[in-house]
Amino acid sequence: MLYVDRQNRICGFLDIEENENSGKFLRRYFILDIREDSFVWYMDNPQNLPSGSSRVGAIKLTYISKVSDATKLRPKVEICSVMNAGMRKYFLQANDQQDLVEWVNVLNKAIKITVPKQSDSQPNSDNPSHQGECGKKQVSYSTDIGGGVPIITPTQKEVNECGESVDRNNLKRSQSHLPSFTPQPPPDSAVIKLVFCKTRSSDEKLEEKLFSIG
């Protein structure tokens, strides 16, 4: 029967067909070490062997694909299971049916690979959609005419979606608003307006005279 040792390893005796298709099963002491990713076997319990005794065989758990009952594959071998490891099938004979079921279960559980799900809450730094400039919110503008040139000025500071304010001095004047002509500067002299007015002379006759208003 199998048991758990002080190092939290599953241990026990099994008979193994070391030479494939030989039909000869040998008694071996097996240790299933999940932390070391290994399934190893010795001639006997290492505590009963001389110090430094080497193991007889070993298989990485990642090489084992499945462990199952081999009654149909080896009908002449009682209480037998088969362990598929790469291109090789290892046949193991247990002490009784309960021992066989326990070994099959613990081995299949050990070789089961669980793939963790990627958390959707973590942002992906490699995603290009998270990079680049942030979009800008629309703002209102006011238009004034100065020297024949339209001047467009935002009524408030532009704020982009990143929460950063953009100074209106950095805004560029649109080329589409520029006039197609070159404005002429106003003359240095003041503008003089001329008006006609009627005045009454000393002999009470109405006369029209031209007056200039500075």
Automatic annotation (TrEMBL):
Residues 116-139, 163-187 are annotated as: Disordered. Residues 7-112 form the PH domain. SMART domains: PH. It holds the Pfam family PH. Residues 116-130, 172-181 have a biased composition (Polar residues). This is PH domain-containing protein.
